[in-house]
Every structure is written in structure tokens, then in C-alpha cells.
Amino acid sequence: MNPNPVASDSTTGLLCLGVGRAGGNLVRALAARSLEGARLKCLGTAEGSAPAPGVDWIPFGHDLTRGFGCGGDLAHGKQAAERDLAQIREAVQGAKVVVLLAGLGGGTGGGAGPLVARAASETGALVIALVTMPFSFEAPLRHANAKAALQALRASADVVLCLSNSAAARMLDEKTRLPEVMANSNAIIGEALCGLWRMLNCPGLVPIGIGTMERMLRGLHGESSFATVEGRGDNRAREAFEQLQRHAFLQGDCSPGEAEVVLINISTDGDLRLDELEWLQRQLQGWCERARLVVGATDDHSLNGRLALSAVAARTGIAPVVSPVGVAAATVPVVVEPTPRYNAAAPAAPVILDGLDLDTGAPLRSTGVFKSAAEAPRKSAAPKAASKRKPEQQNFNFELVSKGRFEHTESTFHQGQNLDEPTFLRQGTTLN
Fold it and tell me: Which pLDDT band, with edges at 50, 70 and 90, does 391 fall under?
């Protein structure tokens, strides 16, 4: 089952495990970077995914999928993992940190990923899931699958680092060709993974290491963010910090300014200056004043004079998460229809103008609504009591039509009044 056997992960501690097609692509891209000390494995349900040198390829669920993959079905991916769960447990055995790589939206990564994360967690490993969300132009079903899988994965992994393909695409010109967009997204994610590898595996004066990361992140079960940037030249520290502040992956609720835990790693080729470290420390403390901040410094001689900053911003799960493996096939969310304010089944009243039924053209003489001038009673002939009678606003049961894109928008209420209704109806004004 394992055509490329590799050494046990117990000596290295760090296992990068790709699940599904997108996860496998990321792991194969990492193999070209020669990350020393990191073990690389791929789990997949589709045949034809040839592993790169140094990558251990582990197929699963082939008796169910027949080697054709899961076809975007989360339930299919979950069942495939359940059939070969013992083999999956063997694949993660011995690792201290498992970085699970997957693209959410399809069937294998989204359906099997939560089970793989749980199997790794049961061995005692710290499980960090680094997943990508679909591009904005992808089908609604893939977005629904991704949201369901993300919820399930948060319940299984200690922390989920969620990287947006759409955010990566926004870094490029809108006329960029699609293959270049895909390649750029993979390159950005690859840089982020290299930053994580430096944080966990590289030596240095102040390394963060596996122990610190485990103490700070284990059990958060939250959706978090991660990014890596580089600076060059005499002002490399300032350049890198400004890039980190603007990075598309570190915006919104998971930004370092809003997170509970922030890990920052400074990497150079061994030439980090004291003034750079002190300046970065002051800037980072001001940026992450609400968080428990840990700053590390490691050496990576491949940087060749550059300074790299890597940030993990994490927070506790916002809402309780439920069964990590109970993900059914996702469907497009059901929209609850609002209760109608009018009875659409009631017979429609005729629309009258100047004594004519506008639907049929027939004259109607006794409606009392919008009468012609010839039919209006003279003031002298009107009874005295009638002049004191309060006029009543007539209601017209017009046929309801759709409100288009606002069909399911809730009405706006202020001080008990529905502001979506016309003012003359709310104030009882009579139209003459």
C-alpha cells in the first residue's frame, strides 16, 4: 500500500499530511522545497495521483470509490475514510505535530479530513489543519460543502488555519489568467507552510518550537489565520511588518489585532540585528495588545539576507461545535419563507378608476371608490350627518408580486412601526 516507505515520524515530529486532490498538490509542492525534518504523506481516494519523490502515497476507500474520487460528495468521502480508518491511524502514528492540508469544497478533503484529524488527535499529536476555501467563482454547492466541512474540522483539529483562495486572487490584477491565479494561490500557501516549518523546526536563539505551539494552541478548536512575508534591504524589518499588516489572510475577525493568541516568528539567515528585533517587538506588542503574544527568532540560511515574518493568529471557537464526523452531504442552505402580511389566496378586488373596472372595462356605479364627477353627490343634497362622518381609507387587494432580490429581506421596524410600509398607510391618511 505504501510504494514509497519513509522513516518513522517519531524522530522528526512534524508530519505534513495532504488529504484529497488539493491537499496532495500542496504536499507535492512542498516536496520541491526540501523542508528538512518534515515528513510528507498524501491520502487520496482517486487513482493517478503519482507521488513526488520523498512523499508517501496512501490510497484509501478504493473499494467504495473504485479509484474515481468522491465526486464532491462529503458523505462519500466520510464513508471512504471510515472503511480504511485503521490504515489512516497507522499513517499518523508517531507524529508530534500533524499539519493536515486540504482543499474544502470537494468530497475527499472535506468529508474525510475531519476523520483524519480526529485519528491524529487520538494519537496525542497536536493537529493543525491548514485548509483552503473555494474561489468566489466556484459553484454554490462547493461553498456549502466548504462551510459544512470547516465546521466539522474545527471540532476535530486543535486549530484550523483557513486560507482564502479568493483573498489570494485579490492580490493579482483582475485580468490575470486563471492558471496564473491558481499557481499564485499555491505559491502563497507554500510560503505560509514554509513559515510554519521555520517556526517548528528551525534552530535559533529564541525558537518557538513544538512545545510552545502546543501549549498555546491545543484545544482552541477555532478558525484562525496564518501568513508569511519577507523584507529585503536596509529597512527589511519595516518592509516585512508593513506587508504583514496589509496581508489579505490576516484581515477581519482573525486578524492579530482581534485574536486571543498570536505567534510571530522572525527568520533570517543568522544576521538578525538587535535594533531590528527591538523595533519589531515594539510594533508587534502595539498591534497585538489584546492577545497572548509569543515572538520567536530562528535561522534559515536559505533566506540569503532576507527577513521573513510568519504569524499565526488564533482564537477560541465562536460557537460550540458538534460531531466531528457527522457531516452529511451538504446542500444549498434552506431559506425560510417569511410569513405573508396579506392573504394571497383571497379573491382580488377590482381596480376602479372613474367608475370603470380597469380589468374588464365595465362601468361600476355603486362602489363609492374614485367616482366620476358626474356621480359625485352635490353638497346641498348630502345629509348633514354624512358631512361629519370620518372618511375611511379603502384597502386594495392588489395582486402580490415578487420583491426580486429583496424577497427574503426582513422588514425594518422603528418604534413599533414597519418602515417598509408606505407612510399614508401607517398614518391612516386618506387619499382623495
Answer: low
> How many residues does this entry show for the chain?
432
Interatomic CA distance for residues 126 and 159, integer angstroms: 9
Q: Which three cell numbers stand for residue 351?
A: 381596480
Q: Domain ranges in the chain?
A: 14-227, 335-432
- Phi then psi dihedrals of residue 394, to 5 deg: -85, 145
Residue appearing with cell numbers 399614508: 424
d(CA 247, CA 335): 34
pLDDT tens digits for range 55-113: 888 888 888 877 787 888 888 889 989 988 999 999 999 888 899 999 898 888 899 99
Q: Which three cell numbers stand for residue 167?
A: 483573498
CA 427 – CA 384 distance, rounded (Å) = 27
- Element housing 109 (H / E): helix 108-122
CATH superfamily of 14-227: Tubulin/FtsZ, GTPase domain (3.40.50.1440)
What does the block give as the cell for 29? 509542492
- Angle CA(221)–CA(224)–CA(225) in degrees, nearest 5? 160
User: Are the C-beta atoms of 36 and 201 separated by less than 8 Å?
Assistant: yes
What pTM was estimated for this model as a whole? Answer: 0.66
- Inter-CA distances, 33 with 30, 194, 197, 387, Å: 5, 8, 11, 93
